[in-house]
Amino acid sequence: SDIIANTKNLTAITVATGNTRYTAFGNCLVDKEDGVLIAGCKNSTIPTDGSVKKIGSFAFAGCSGLTSVVIPTSVTEISDYAFADCTLAGVTLSEGLITIGIFAFEGCTALKALTIPASVKYIRMFAFDRCDALADVAFGQTTGWTLSSSSVVPALSNNTKGNAAMIRSYN
Question: pTM here?
Fold first, then answer.
């Protein structure tokens, strides 16, 4: 549900007192019913109280002032396009994250390094497309990954498009 589109110029997010469905915490709009962070802005800090289970599609897309983000341990999924075309230079992914969606970090051209936690099982197609500066990727779990015809992250091959998916299988 695209309640807020184009968060590029947002500086603060608030919710009316008494709203039973949504809450604003750390300049993030969160759906209380399903724990989805719907929208953020350049001044956002993702809540670490366990209320956020998923970063929603397009939640931070195009947010030009957001330079770093910490994904808390309660978040299991970063949805499609969640941070697309942001000015992120630093991303901390915490243990507990399972899925990184299609185009999740696409166009984050300032992002240079990233650690994929051992808990991640799925990195969807184009997750890091156009992240041209991304040259240092560390995997918490280095075995069991299945790679498509080309790499999802430029650091893994000569393909700088980052247009494949990776899946880690478990026995």
Answer: 0.85
